[in-house]
Amino acid sequence: MTEPVRYLGHGGIAIVEIGNPPVNALSAPVRRGLIDAIARAGRDPEVRAIVMTAAGRTWPAGADIREFDLPPTGPTLAEVCDAIETSAKPVVSALFGTALGGGLEIALAAQLRLAEAGTRLGLPEVTLGILPGAGGTQRLPRLIGAEAALAMMLGGKPISAERAEALGIVDAVVPGDVTDAATRLAVAIAGGEAPLPDAEERRTRQSAAVWLDAVAKARAQPLDPHLPAPRKIIDCVEAALLLPEAEGHAFEAEALAELKATPQSRALRHAFLAERRAARQPGLKGVAPLPVTRVGVVGGGLMGTGIAMAMLAAGLRVMLVEQTPDTLAAALGRIASAHDRAVQKGRLSPEAREAEWDRIAGTTLLSELDSAELIVEAVIEDEKVKARVFADLGRIASPQAILATNTSYLDVNRLAEASGRPARVLGLHFFSPANVMKLVEIIPADMTDPAAVATGFALAKRLGKHAVRSGNRDGFIGNRILTAYRTAADFLLEDGASPYDIDRAMVAFGFPLGPYRVADMAGLDISWARRKRLAPTRDPAARYVAIGDLLCEIGRLGRKSGRGYYRYDGDAEGGGAKEDPEVLALIARERERKGIVARPVQAGEIRGRLLAAMANEGVRLLQEGIARCPSDIDVVMMAGYAYPRWRGGPMMTADEVGLLALRDQLRRFAREDEEFWRPGPLWDELIKNGANFASLNRAFDEA
Ligand code: 3HC
Predict the structure, then answer these.
(1) Exposed, middle or buried, 72 (CB in 10 Å: 0-12/13-18/19+)?
(2) Residue identifier of the C-alpha nearest atom 9 of ligand 1
(3) What is the pLDDT of residues 650-659, one digit of tens each?
(4) 401 and 375 in contact (C-beta within 8 Å)?
(5) Count of structural domains within the chain
(6) Domain range holding 182?
(7) How close is the Cα of 275 to the center of ligand 1, in Å?
(8) What is the CATH number of the domain that holds 360?
(9) What is the pTM of this model?
(10) What is the pLDDT of residues 504-529, one digit of tens each?
């Protein structure tokens, strides 16, 4: 086992090395070890200076997020920073890898900071619903001024070592081994050959007026009303100017404690850990992913071009296959215009666009995919068409190549069989627009070999997406939850709510768009086609809401036809969705036909029912073994369906509401419609054992 902090003597220099793999998080034993090491160096008359460094791949990436929900133990990180700042011997910190959060804060407390070229520095606490609470909100603005400090803390994005040097956060960027460079500097300081910077002199020269102006500007920008952390960060930066130093730190400590206890921070921390849990695949331990540099994409529709763009952005070579020269030209044209828009908006540099364009080629011949290491099929959602593509790919592709289907619903086993090489076939389900949405569902079929699955996970990471493993069952995880959500919404539509009431309620809950705006965007004909396909197997006794079908029958196919649940006059691109009395009249006629008397439906009921439907479907997915653990469902909904991250996903929200209350609601709803609402047995089991979805996640971690 690695020692949390090693103390090494080195000719008058104490080297203090943090060792807590994988990212040297500042957990309690590390904090204790640091305090002891600084004190020991202070006592040792031989020691003239201290070098603070870390073992392994990175300087500490922050406080240990897993400790946040445990009772506090040992010294706080703020106490560690105080010990470093007031150390009797100067401390030179040697930054490399990622110096984030508390990691950057301990460096800020040191007298000198060197960073290896390539180091990323940042204060991402805001993404966890908290603030830099080990003195970061006080020390950083004093060092670099309020505006730059606020930008780093409110944005949460890391910056480069060079930028950090330009801002005055680090004293120098060094090309080689930073610990060696820090040791040489410490020796020079000890020998009086290098001056020790005076803390007072290093303070920003920013005037109080400029400082307060930056604070006022930060307050005036549109801040998400759901999130308290940004406001608290601004308050702390103001306090850093207005309060005496010790009081400023106390103000920060209080703000941190308050934020840690908010449901938003609990949810954001859950989201961070859930994403890492989803990536953890115990069954793939030791299985090496296959190298992928050349990718084939079959189908240049919206999905195929989005997938191609995601691959290009990750540095891969792409061969895009379409059926005819015209459709191929249209597909490449779509990519070119998307790239143009990205350049215009400053999201892509002109050089990067050229480089990406050099890496894409198009063809109408499937046979040109013979050298691709991975091929993603994204043709229309028709089993016969897809099976034909897989049969062809089975003959054409190199024997090692991985063949992936982007199907949303179909049985991956059937496509694997059609290919004649099932061990190399799996589902990689992207979400539209695939170059933007951060989710890939990975669906191993019965015979998929582990190397192919490992390659899917490695590819997702390379694309910057969250991968979630799903069992191979109609709709996988995401579309199953979405269908339940939409069905519950449709029931309310028939019962008395308008689509606009429902959308407003869900936007107030935190979704960027409600279910009917989303349906209009996707195109109502897509789900209509699916419903028609499933009609022969539908239980005739099940409640069926036909409003979506009726809209399609009169040509209201959503945004693309200018009419759907909303009317899109003129500026459909800009979102100009208007409520439409025609739709309300159609719904009223349908209620009348079914003999339903509209009842008032409040926003609270809408949210309650839609959440209950999602959580209950989540329980079914767990019972059926399609989802491994509740947090995988949460990741799917946050990354693929814009479920508000600060609510942590439907299973986390269910925990916050309470399982007993939700189960009782489900039982009540089940009196109206047994089939849809009946709570699965897992609810009872968890409630009986005093457990919840978080306990299932923990059990998964411990297994
Ligand atoms: N605490 C605990 N575990 C952490 C962690 C942290 N701060 N950061 C990363 N880990 C763990 C992950 O859970 C994962 O564990 P696993 O292998 O068991 O699943 C492992 O380290 C590797 O992490 P990633 O898979 O994310 O590895 P990457 O190489 O892709 O990314 C990283 C590395 C950039 C460091 C990324 O993990 C990251 O951004 N970490 C969070 C950084 C952060 O938010 N720091 C601020 C913490 S809050 C704080 O410091 C409060 C203070 O101000 C008081």
Answers:
(1) exposed
(2) 23
(3) 999 999 999 9
(4) yes
(5) 3
(6) 5-261
(7) 11
(8) 3.40.50.720
(9) 0.94
(10) 999 999 999 999 999 998 889 888 88
